[in-house]
């Protein structure tokens, strides 16, 4: 291949890569849509009405009582939810953008242990029970804690494996839910 052809091919590939990078900030039609199973229950054992979450940006955190990093992350999420850590940022996301935090106990054989964990951490956001691990597997998670960020259209716009601090959660909220990302 001549130097001229190589140059043209390289230039075209570079332009294509640049265009791809520039359009990556735009909304994607290829994000998977989240569908929560209807069998999930609340702390009273009542079936949870998934419709109450429709149209809201969600932070969904999968956890188990035996997972030590999960315990730390639940506490970090609660600091944001109860507005005790950086309250001005918490208000921005919770009040202005209507972000809702949801914890889903996954793969737990003894739900009472999970409920004890929630009581110990003082988590006051939506906590759901009843995932035998299938939902966690369906969303592609390979471990716990696992967190998904879902936009108001129900699209999964981001995921994170391993525990996050409150600052890590805020950084992801900025990345996934900020209106002026680009």
Describe the structure.
The protein is an alpha/beta fold and about 180 residues long. The protein has a single domain (about 30-175), classed as Glutaredoxin. About 40% of the residues lie in helices and about 15% in strands. It has six helices and five strands; from the N terminus they run αβααβαβαββα. It has helices at about 5-25, 70-80, 85-95, 110-120, 135-140, 165-175, and strands at about 60-65, 100-105, 125-130, 145-150, 155-160. The chain has a five-stranded mixed β-sheet. Strand 4 and strand 5 (about 155-160) form a beta hairpin. The chain is globular, with a radius of gyration of 20 Å. Mean pLDDT is about 85; it is low at about 5-30.
Please give the domain count.
Answer: 1
Provide the spatial order of strands within the biggest beta sheet.
3-2-1-4-5
Q: Helices and strands, in N-to-C order?
A: HEHHEHEHEEH
Q: CATH homologous superfamily?
A: Glutaredoxin
Tell me what the CATH architecture is.
3-Layer(aba) Sandwich
* Biggest sheet features: 5 strands, mixed
Q: How many strand elements?
A: 5
Q: What oligomeric state best describes the polypeptide chains here?
A: single chain
List the total number of helices.
6
**CATH class descriptor name:** Alpha Beta
In one word, what is the shape? globular
Query: What structural class should be given to the helix and strand makeup?
Result: alpha/beta
N- and C-termini, Cα separation: 39 Å
């Amino acid at each position: 291949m001549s130097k001229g052809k190589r140059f043209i091919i390289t230039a075209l590939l570079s332009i294509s890569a640049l265009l791809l990078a520039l359009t990556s900030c735009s909304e994607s039609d290829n994000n998977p849509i989240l569908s929560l199973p209807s069998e999930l229950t609340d702390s009273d054992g009542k079936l949870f009405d998934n419709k109450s979450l429709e149209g809201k940006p969600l932070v969904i955190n999968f956890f188990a009582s035996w997972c030590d990093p999960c315990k730390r992350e639940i506490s970090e999420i609660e600091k944001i939810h109860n507005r005790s850590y950086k309250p001005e940022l918490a208000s921005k996301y919770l009040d202005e953008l209507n972000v809702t935090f949801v914890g889903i106990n996954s793969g737990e054989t003894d739900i009472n242990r999970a409920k004890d964990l929630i009581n110990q951490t003082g988590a006051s956001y939506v906590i759901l029970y009843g995932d035998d691990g299938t939902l966690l597997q369906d969303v592609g998670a390979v471990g716990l804690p696992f967190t998904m960020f879902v936009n108001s259209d129900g699209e999964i716009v981001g995921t994170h494996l391993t525990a996050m601090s409150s600052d890590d959660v805020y950084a992801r909220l900025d990345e996934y839910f900020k209106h002026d990302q680009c």
